[in-house]
């Protein structure tokens, strides 16, 4: 082949294992095939969960009648459009926001146990909401107070963790310390409040979608749409979170600034969700790890985490509404039970895996000998 033919030939691209490159002109995007398959499966599961939440309940409504109600007028207008649909839409939006928030925070902290529940965001929102409920403030101020409390708690965590450099262990430890401090303040307010106000605050702290409507769903949906450009940036920025700090700095990444931006985005999403549905725990913890393990990626994928969180919260709200007779179990109770089981499973499997990877005495001797030869060279 002549030099001219070589110059005219198209450059060969290196194959990427498990990925497909989609090109359109000068633009290209890399798609992880297994992650795309997991997203498709969770999307089907979400459609099934939403259908069950709309059709099944105290009043059974067929799928055909549900579609007819959504597209026209039937005898089930109030049941579908007033009672079930707003609550289900809110569960989808809140679950997606919590799943994305958990994925961002776990990627920044490089810790599968990090989540808004662990690092104090939920505790800050709970303290502010408890103060609003027990101090006799208007109900319209409850959501803004919870949002402000979550953001203030996150600012305190970042302030405590960012002294010097925002390392992952320091970020998690600062969050745990702030969460413990804020939860103690919540308990003091509950003990000092009237019985009725304390009970109302306790229900909010558990987390429930009962009594929520289109106002909360519209607010959270609009919030997610406004955050979409930031989430597109976060998807690309997360590609460098697996690198160590010297390597990331060497390729031009401002590590501390990027970590703070990703953490702030996750905290804002979690605070917005908690402000609308209460302190629903463990969705942000479990959803990213379930998505990551199914997709087999090095970090939680954002879209799969959002779909997983939406499925978990819709199912938790539907089961709590229909499986306990006349009593409606708050969704936060079921997600907390799921999170406790998942934490035990995660700790057991992680410990077993670490024990299997621990080298024996002969392996350690061979490693020392090899390190000595490398040092001599």
TrEMBL record:
Localisation per UniProt entry: Cell membrane
Annotated membrane-spanning segments are 36-54, 88-106, 118-142, 149-166, 172-193, 214-234, 300-319, 331-348
The cross-references to Pfam families, in alphabetical order and at most eight, read:
FecCD (PF01032)
The record ties this protein, via CDD domains, to: TM_ABC_iron-siderophores_like (cd06550)
Stored SUPFAM superfamilies? ABC transporter involved in vitamin B12 uptake, BtuC
The main place the protein resides is membrane
| Keyword annotations | Cell membrane, Membrane, Transmembrane, Transmembrane helix, Transport
Record InterPro entries: ABC_BtuC-like, ABC_transptr_permease_BtuC
Tell me what topology the record assigns in the membrane: Multi-pass membrane protein
Give the UniProt family note: Belongs to the binding-protein-dependent transport system permease family. FecCD subfamily.
Protein name (Swiss-Prot/TrEMBL): Iron ABC transporter permease
What is the organism field in this record? Glycomyces niveus
